[in-house]
Amino acid sequence: MTIYERTERAITRFAAGLALLGGLGLIFATLVTCLSIILKLVRRVLDGMFGSGPIGDALPWLHAILGEEELVTYGVGFALFAALPWVMIRSGHIRIDLFEPVFGRRLNRFLNLIADIALAAIAYLILTRQWFLIIKKARGSKEPFGNLLLQGDFAQAADRISTNQESQILGLPLWPTYIVAEICVAAFLIVACFCVWRSARDLFKNPQAGQ
């Protein structure tokens, strides 16, 4: 087995595992939505039978889940970010196949390479821009965040994490969600770089090799 084949197998397994992990986000979002609907429906039925006052006093917890929209957003967002590497490795992104038979194999492989390079660049841009949602920029004489970690000054590094943003309903800090998204985008970038290698390899492969 060649280095390329080993890398492809490892990258594919990694992307599949991350996508399966992201599926837990969809399960969480589905459970929260269903539970909230059931609680809301039961509350309306009981209010219609006994009145809202007695039910509110006896069962104050019987209502739609507070912050349901935010919780569902977090679950679906995690699922989407976690699925990016799998979609990339399987070439599951949007493609227009109308002219594919006309272009020929060589041109199609070249277009695949250009598309993979573009997606790798997009992944890099998302990764770098999202970083500053987590870490405050070093201003003036302040040390960069990476230098603080290398120096072992973890207290100063922790102070550089942007913790002032919170969700509107539940008041949850947003920086942990940014970190999770950053990890998923980093995985997306790694897979995208491998896909560039794969497309370049297919483009410059010897046609006489049976490919």
Automatic annotation (TrEMBL):
This is TRAP transporter small permease protein. The chain crosses the membrane at residues 12-39, 71-89, 110-127, 175-197. It comes from Thalassovita mangrovi. The lineage of its organism: Bacteria, Pseudomonadati, Pseudomonadota, Alphaproteobacteria, Rhodobacterales. The complex comprises the extracytoplasmic solute receptor protein and the two transmembrane proteins. One of its GO terms (cellular component) is plasma membrane. One of its GO terms (molecular function) is transmembrane transporter activity. Part of the tripartite ATP-independent periplasmic (TRAP) transport system. It is a multi-pass membrane protein. Keywords: Cell inner membrane, Cell membrane, Membrane, Transmembrane, Transmembrane helix, Transport. Belongs to the TRAP transporter small permease family. Residues 64-198 form the Tripartite ATP-independent periplasmic transporters DctQ component domain. It is found in: Cell inner membrane; Cell membrane. InterPro entries: DctQ.
